[in-house]
Amino acid sequence: MLRYLAGQTRWSAQFGFRQLTTNETSVALRPFYFAIHPDFFGQYPKERATNEDSLKKVGQYLEALHSQRRTSPLDVTVYMREPRDTQAVKPVKISLLNHTDVRSAVSRILQCCNLSLEYLTSIPNKTALQSTYTPNRPIKWDPTYYRYTGTHNPYAERTQTKPKRTFRGWLIDSIKKAEENDQNTKHVREENEKLTVQICDQLQLKSLQWKSEWGYRNYRSCLNTFARLVQENQTKLSHLKGKSVYFCDKTGVSILGNVLLSAGDVSTDWLSMLTNVSRHEETLLGLPDLEMTLSDLLHDIQIVRRPDHGIVMAKEYDKQLRALISSVNRCWKAKRDVLGGSLNHLQLVVETSSGPLAISTSGQFLVPSSCPGSILIDFIVNNRHKANTLLKEHERKSIKTEAILHKCQSELDICSLERDASLPPDKILTFCENLMKEAYNVKDLLKGARVLITFHSSISDDGKLLVPWNWVDIYD
To answer: In angstroms, rounded to a whole number, what is the distance separating the alpha carbons of residues 389 and 411?
Structure first.
């Protein structure tokens, strides 16, 4: 076995073939997972069980290839939904022989299911050759090699610095593509908006929103399914009046009282959840008492829920609060005098057990539910002044940020100017201040555009322009 693996390694090193990473494998097989995922076969129990078993076997086969273990031939059958008739399914047989690399196995799976190979073929098939291989041409090293080894760089005089791209140049190219995407998807977005309003009126919902990473076309599919569900069960869903419903990757009730429906679930799962909302709300109603208990133990510190907690499940949050209360209780008698007076001017957010104990840029204590009580109390005592300063600074910047966002959108005639929820106010201020300075040069391009301030530059499928907050550092 060791001799076999050694042979495989030498072969790869000699010819420079590149294995797929686990992440690349996952992305390449996404169409396959979506087509056969057991969650979509709720009304076909036999086919669902077959798909679950086949997915497990395929996963084990690919894992063996990633680990460079020897594999045996594998024959599995999966059931796929017909693209033109979502109510019909068809069996597909997948035969995997003695593949020696993940790429060929993934290609075989997609070909058997008649799925696109576009992403797979876009991944480079070769990597840089190993140092044991002697090339038949001179090597042009990166300039840093010559700089740190003191070796003369024979290409230095011939090297020309590539001119840095201007922000206006990037906008010219991007706006054109964004306008094309906007026009191509406008009718779908308008239909989505119309159907959203219709469903909200029928159930008298507060809002119906899309919070999933899937695209707007998937939103359309969810809306159609939900509209049929409402049409057939409107009387059963009358208790949703005044609530917000989110399509996301979870199903349940959030700690902010929003009803969550997973975009990957079938309509029967949604109906089961929606008709039992009251059971989830019992947990939700008990959360304020738990937060008050924790606040009392920590000398009236404010227990707050951040805006992004809109998709945190109430039952999960209930467990997190109980775990932290229990931890603080165990050391409270020994530590109660350490906290001093009232801490009602400070804020604390309870996070998942795997999160770090830290202070956010907004001055809130971010506390994992697994944090020992004694460590938490010492951390609060040692950082209370810093947290208070950050809280005040954040409040001041938030007010200023809202004002400059409105000014920026108005003066540049931008259709919509949104921001990534994870961006702190100081980065938004930096973006807007720099954009206003460049207004004379970009106003004609941004007029009527839909802009999202984020961490990277891109164009969304529906024509939204994603502009990095630090674009000044990236473009001239």
So the answer is: 33
Residue of 84, 80, 76 whose CA lies nearest to 47: 80
What distance in Å separates the CA atoms of residue 154 and residue 86, rounded to the nearest whole number?
63
- What interhelical angle do 373-411 and 314-335 show, nearest 10? 130
Sign of the C-alpha dihedral computed for residues 280, 284, 287 and 289 taken in this order: negative
Q: In which element (H, E) is residue 368 found?
A: strand 365-368
Cα distance between residue 459 and residue 476, in whole Å: 20
CA geometry: angle at 475 spanning 473 and 476, to 5°?
Answer: 100
The alpha carbon of residue 159 and the mean position of all alpha carbons in its chain are separated, in whole angstroms, by 40
Q: Which residues contact 353 (CB under 8 A, 6 or more apart)?
A: 320, 323, 368, 369, 370
The answer to whether the CB of 233 falls within 8 A of the CB of 199 is no
pLDDT in tens, 347-361: 999 998 888 899 988
Among the listed residues 313, 323, 259, the one whose alpha carbon sits nearest the alpha carbon of residue 293: 323
| Predicted TM-score (pTM) of this structure | 0.58
Closest CA to 394 of 285, 306, 323: 306
